[in-house]
Write a structure and sequence with these properties.
mainly alpha; two-stranded antiparallel sheet; 13 helices; 5% strand; globular
């Protein structure tokens, strides 16, 4: 199985997660979207030396993975391209901030003190902020379909042009991947003993991929027009139940308490 087929399978697995029968999937998408955005804003708003309350903020992604029955290992695998970039952001902080802070101190007959630089603390906080943000986004994506996310965006009065672009880009990923897989398969059948694609064929294959994608786009657009597409997608209005309101409100109250209570440092 080549890398394109693996990516298609991963996309199908993610869509199966979104369509499964689970109470977190059935929650109103606007509440989940607002909760994820507010969580990310709350995490990012912490001071660069506030590592203790940041550790407490891990309760939300832990809850999401355990109660939502999501595989943490698979989540990390699907985010393998984003996480290194996120964690790399604060890697130079120890060289820039060399202020010493007392981490642990014991006085008495055998007194000793453990100190750490401010750069090390700020590096950990920056990494945790990025890590938590990516986990929160993954929980949202794994429990909410793209149609529901776009519905939530329209409920928040995001311009329909932006919503349609987001929806079509997501839908078109799968189509382009399938076309690329077909081109790769045809090339391998014509050059079975060749390892990879010869550099002389790169331009031709990319051009074929572009032309096929444009043809597919025309077919998709014509199908949309035949089904009554008028520039906006139609979705049934979702009823708001008590759990749809209580779930995000309770979490938001918890975030505010951790952020502003001062109990956790």
């Amino acid at each position: 199985m080549n890398s394109i087929e693996k990516n298609i399978n991963e996309l199908n697995k993610l869509q199966n997660l979104q369509q499964r029968s689970h109470w977190m999937n059935d929650l109103h998408p606007m509440g989940k979207l607002l909760l994820s955005v507010l969580y990310i804003f709350t995490v990012v708003s912490f001071d660069k030396y506030s590592i203790a309350p940041l550790l407490v903020m891990a309760v939300y992604p832990i809850f999401g993975f355990i109660v939502g029955e999501l595989s943490f290992k698979e989540g990390l695998y699907r985010m393998r391209l984003i996480l290194p970039l996120v964690l790399f952001v604060g890697i130079f902080n120890p060289f820039l901030d060399k202020t010493l802070y007392t981490l642990y101190s014991v006085s008495g007959d055998s007194s000793f003190t453990i100190r750490i630089t401010g750069g090390m603390v700020s590096m950990l906080t920056v990494m945790l902020k990025g890590f938590y943000s990516v986990l929160a986004a993954y929980i949202l994506i794994a429990t909410t379909s793209i149609d529901d996310i776009c519905y939530a965006l329209r409920c928040l009065h995001v311009p329909k042009v932006m919503v349609i672009v987001i929806l079509l880009i997501y839908r078109y990923f799968g189509i382009m991947a399938i076309e690329a897989d077909r081109i790769m398969t045809a090339y391998k059948l014509r050059a079975p003993h060749q390892n990879g694609i010869h550099y002389k064929a790169w331009g031709t294959l990319v051009g074929q991929w572009l032309l096929r994608s444009m043809d597919k786009a025309e077919d998709v657009y014509e199908s949309m027009l035949l089904r009554g597409f008028t520039g906006d997608f139609r979705v049934r209005k979702k009823k708001v139940s008590a759990i749809d309101v209580l779930y995000p409100v309770i979490w938001i109250i918890g975030f505010i308490f951790i952020r502003h209570s001062g109990i956790f440092g």
